[in-house]
Amino acid sequence: NFVPGAASRVEVDVALARAAVALAGSDAWAITAGAGMGVDSGLPSFRGTTGLWKDKSLAMTYEDMSDDKWFFEDPAFAWGINYTQLEMYRHTEPHAGFQTLLRWTQSLGKPWYVFTSNIDCQFEKAGFEHRRVVTCHGDLHHLQCVDKACKAENKVDNVWPADCIPSGLKDLVDPASLRFTDEAVLEEPYFRCPRCGGLARPNVWFCKDRNHAFWEEESERRVAYNEWLKEIYQTKKRLVVIECGGGMDIPTVRCEGEDAVEEAGEGSLLVRMNPTDCRVPKDRAVGLPFGAREGLERLEAALEALRQPSAAARRRTAGRRASPGPSSTSASGARGRPAAKAVAGARKASVSPGPTRKALASPGPAAEGVGIEGVIAKAWR
Question: FRET partner for 37 with CA separation of 20 to 30 A, picked from 111, 123, 198, 321?
Fold first, then answer.
């Protein structure tokens, strides 16, 4: 069963509070990312007839293009499109949300992995360890031979970096049809297989692909990730999955996070960030109606609310120091310390299963204008 994600301000505050408390108290966490992750960096989502195809003369969808047959039937078209994407990825800087996640890999002090269907290598470009980034569809920054029967003596050489293909060939690609205007460029060594001299192609899983080459290093990363998840499942550890931009056209990323959280221990949570479809499973999930950058910025603020007393709490503390007396220890004073309780809750998170769903399901202080700090504090009462 799926339920709508957060919509109102109160629901958003509750969802962010629940996500922050779960992440702070988790044993491990994972980032899952689909095409929507790159939208805030200026990358198109590619799906359908928009994105890369907007204002082009092409009468096809991304799915039509994503077929390795074009490398045999129309190589100028196949490489025109893929070179356009490669250059786009090379010259696009990851948005601020990537740095937010990268900081968490250090500040949270918990084991983590990235699982992404994106082929842009934006996580690595942002500074993430390559060995911890699992690319289920491969990446455009590596090449292989179009002939799957062409094998290297050492299987690690079946795939090689695309760094050999120079930048600056954009003027040779027709902007309307996305074809190389002169096929002679495809005879250059950087577009050829170093073993047989045949045409090279990106080592990605196209939507329709009959010749994808096995890359041992990529497989090793996937095996390590699966073993990591297996240990979490067996020991019933608390796992939090932060999902950014996972779409429904090819729901690989959404299913990955849903399945992982379902198999992990009590207190695990899926945090889905999607501005157009943030529906989530009824249990163990919250949906946030934001793009990746804004959603991560808001979640970081919620985490900060766990770590530090609010300004109001600091003012109350200053007031108590200035005016000692019975009022500083009165019942009303004790009730007026939501931020302090939030900090205490964050400390408890490493040993506590987290707040009850009932505590986070009711509007509580957020409805009275207290905001996310009040929601967090209420969750730990």
Answer: 111
What residues contact residue 38 under an 8 Å CB cut-off, 6+ apart?
45, 92, 118, 120, 122, 245
The phi and psi torsions of 112 (rounded to 5 degrees) equal -150, 160
Tokens of 208: 């329709």
Q: How many CB atoms lie within 10 A of CB 266?
A: 10
Helix (H) or strand (E) run with residue 3 in it: strand 2-3
pLDDT digits (tens, 9 = 90+) for 184-228: 999 999 999 999 999 999 999 999 999 999 898 999 999 999 999
Distance (Å, rounded) from C-alpha 21 to C-alpha 355? 8
CB 239 within 8 A of CB 27: yes
357, HSE (Cβ side, Cα atoms, 13 Å):
9
298 phi/psi in degrees, rounded to 5 = -70, -40
For residue 188 the two structure tokens come to 């250059």
Largest CA distance in the chain: 88
E strand or H helix at 134, and its extent? strand 133-135
The two three-digit tokens of residue 38, written as one number:
């790159």
The burial class, CB within 10 Å (0-12 / 13-18 / 19+), for 1 is exposed
Question: pLDDT per residue over 70-96, tens digit each?
Answer: 999 999 999 999 999 999 999 999 999
Query: How would you classify the pairing of strands 28-33 and 112-116?
Result: parallel
Round to whole Å and give the CA distance between 114 and 126: 13
**Pairwise CA distance, residues 86 & 175, whole Å:** 15
Residue 201: both structure tokens together: 């192609």
User: Token pair of 300, please?
Assistant: 């970081």
Classify each residue of 134-150 as buried b or exposed e, where b means 16 or more C-beta atoms within 10 Å of its C-beta.
bbbbbbbbbbbbbbeeb
Q: Could you give the 3-state DSSP secondary structure of residue 361? A: helix
Name the packing angle between helices 338-348 and 9-24 (round to 10°): 40
Task: Cite the beta strand spans of 223-275 per DSSP E.
Answer: 239-244, 269-273
